[in-house]
Amino acid sequence: MRLFLVALQFLTRLPVRLARFEPGWLNDCVRHFPLVGALVGAVGAAVLLGASQLWPAWIAAVLALAATVALTGGFHEDGLADTFDALGGVVPRDKALAIMKDSRIGSYGALALGLSLLLRAALLAVLATRPVLGAVAALLAGHAFARAAAVGVMVGLPYGGDVDHAKAKPLALAVAPRNLGIALGWCGLLALTLAACGVPPPRLLLALAAALLVAWAMRQWLKRRLGGYTGDGLGATEQLTEIAVLLAFTASL
């Protein structure tokens, strides 16, 4: 529970208060990132389903997207923009890392962020017209699997930036493989629960495959360009995986 609360405090704007804090907890709390993701997805699903009873699907989709962004403070969106600003062009590693630290947004980042928001809003609008179970499953799985993908990248790569200047230094240290195992366990439990509720297993398998593919692609990209992951790279991983999972749930099979 303590590590879950640390993960909740780190990934969301919820007012979580802890009596004390140890840096090592931040490193180990990544095992519960998918559980926090499921919570964020549940909030998005509640807003999507509630708003779709009052307004057209596209309005409900934008409201649901706004709710999840507000809940996380645009944490992952910021990482997506910074990553594409840094890696969208052809620049050396040191220059790319410097661009990531720049608070200003450039053309590549603006395009990536705009297209991401537009595509997610469109996908949520499609889900708003689908049966309730499908919409809830897509949002829960999308947010949970996406955060597990980020954990996978952390375990599969060393830190690619300057550890001494990392914003969350404990996350720049080696993440134990057991934390990835527990994160995947949360995803497996969620998938089994959704299947028991009636979500078709092929749809869940497609979503899992999409998440694994994005995690692998991001690992390769970050390794080639930076030699490892950064916090912004993890944010980009979460965003792209979330989109991939939503695409899997809305695809015509």
UniProtKB/TrEMBL annotation:
EC class of the enzyme, as a word: transferase
One of the protein's GO biological processes: cobalamin biosynthetic process
Catalytic activity field: alpha-ribazole 5'-phosphate + adenosylcob(III)inamide-GDP = adenosylcob(III)alamin 5'-phosphate + GMP + H(+); alpha-ribazole + adenosylcob(III)inamide-GDP = adenosylcob(III)alamin + GMP + H(+)
Superkingdom to which the source organism belongs: Bacteria
UniProt subcellular location: Cell membrane
Stretches that traverse the bilayer: 35-51, 58-75, 105-128, 135-159, 179-197, 204-222
An annotated GO cellular component: plasma membrane
E.C. number: 2.7.8.26
Pathway(s) annotated for this protein in UniProt: Cofactor biosynthesis; adenosylcobalamin biosynthesis; adenosylcobalamin from cob(II)yrinate a,c-diamide: step 7/7
Purpose: Joins adenosylcobinamide-GDP and alpha-ribazole to generate adenosylcobalamin (Ado-cobalamin). Also synthesizes adenosylcobalamin 5'-phosphate from adenosylcobinamide-GDP and alpha-ribazole 5'-phosphate.
Pfam families, A to Z: CobS
Protein name (record): Adenosylcobinamide-GDP ribazoletransferase
GO MF assignments: adenosylcobinamide-GDP ribazoletransferase activity; cobalamin 5'-phosphate synthase activity
Organism: Pelomonas aquatica
Topology versus the membrane: Multi-pass membrane protein
Family designation: Belongs to the CobS family.
Keywords from the named record: Cell membrane, Cobalamin biosynthesis, Magnesium, Membrane, Transferase, Transmembrane, Transmembrane helix
Requisite cofactors: Mg(2+)
